[in-house]
Design a protein that fits this description.
Glucose Oxidase, domain 1; two-stranded antiparallel sheet; alpha/beta
């Protein structure tokens, strides 16, 4: 995967990208990530996140809409490593992560809205592969997401 700069993508494809207007905390050694979108909608429960990250990622980005809750963590170092090893390109969490220092040492990229040391529940409640909306942006399975330190962009199709 080549490094990308979202600012350059906006310059080159302004009419083809949407901006997710949210503030992110960035974790991992990768400078950027991009790929087709796969989505989950969960709330303070990460069993479906683990199940999904255990499947072949095929270069996709997992977008987890946790309702913005930072009360419990939806992704930590163990789940991120499962995702990396399964071929996921990165994770965006509209919610909290834990094990931030361990995540920073990984060759992977995770964005979250915050951090929490508290574990989530594990009931597998949630929905998969549906449109999720946060940061005034729609994340639609099969569309593409591009992420770096400047933010998150979404495109209907691969830009390159």
């Amino acid at each position: 995967m080549r490094d990308i700069k979202t600012a350059d993508l906006v310059d080159d494809y302004e009419d083809k990208v949407r901006f997710c207007d949210a503030t992110w905390q960035r974790f991992g050694r990768r400078a950027s990530a991009y790929g087709p979108i796969s989505t989950l909608k969960v709330f303070e429960d990460n069993a479906l996140v683990k199940q999904t990250l255990s499947e072949p990622g095929e270069g996709r980005i997992l977008v987890v809409d946790g309702g913005g809750s930072t009360r419990t963590a939806l992704v930590g170092d163990v789940l991120a490593e499962i995702g990396r090893a399964s071929g996921w390109a990165g994770i965006i969490v509209n919610g909290a992560i834990r094990d931030g220092e361990a995540l920073d040492g990984m060759d992977f990229l995770v964005f979250s809205r915050g951090r929490s040391p508290i574990k989530s529940t594990k009931t597998a409640a949630g929905h998969r592969d549906l449109r999720v909306t946060f940061g005034q942006a729609d994340f639609i399975p099969g569309q593409w997401v591009y992420m770096d330190a400047d933010g998150v962009l979404i495109s209907e199709h691969a830009l390159f």
